């Protein structure tokens, strides 16, 4: 007698928990409690007669059997999702799901989204701003917009635009720290760092060719938007990232703290899932994002 397949719901719990290496994060993704995920995994292990996870005070990890099984389960879900997404619908349309870096979503994508909705009225759009790595097509996204130095994964990549760095601060901070020549000595200011950014103060210093400048110390936050807000409250100087900071510069909420602007090594990329071709609204969205990137504000 062939073995019976475990319940699909239990396999979904295992796929999420294995991908996150955490019952808590899997529960948050699936809108369940960690206890429900844990009990579901225990039931799956009992059904299979195999331990899939090792639980220890240091955390959760997959057993060798769990690692092997996860690869098959992930591939199976990927095939199911791909097949489901390729099914025709009465109007050949569906919701668009895009995951985007948080600050780019709030400072660049969302302010422009109205023009897309005018072009394709009635389409539903989901915007996710989690920082996790996206797996096409398992995660269910049509598009991802990410900061990267080069294409690094599956899907079709379109370069949108690069960032340019310039130190910025509030007008009041500039006024209180500028010397007689109207310039700020950046060695003497409180520097605001973004801990989640791969390029920050050191990148600007190297690009500007400034010697004997210690970039360490100051205030560290975990998002670009929070860093901008810290600078606007007068806490110090932050590396402004154009075009994300352009609206703040245009409004006068922030002002340049130095006259040198340097290019970043990374750029924002639009990554498309491989199965968007049958869906015309996805193709319009792809072309619209690329069109918007041709003329970012402030450039």
UniProtKB/TrEMBL annotation:
Quote the InterPro entries the UniProt record gives.
LysR-type_TF_proteobact-type, LysR_HTH_N, LysR_subst-bd, WH-like_DNA-bd_sf, WH_DNA-bd_sf
Which one GO biological process term can you cite for this protein? DNA-templated transcription
Q: Which UniProt keywords apply?
A: DNA-binding, Transcription, Transcription regulation
Q: Does the keyword Repeat apply?
A: no
**Span of domain HTH lysR-type:** 6-63
GO MF terms here are: DNA-binding transcription factor activity; sequence-specific DNA binding
Similarity comment: family membership: Belongs to the LysR transcriptional regulatory family.
Descriptive protein name: Transcriptional regulator
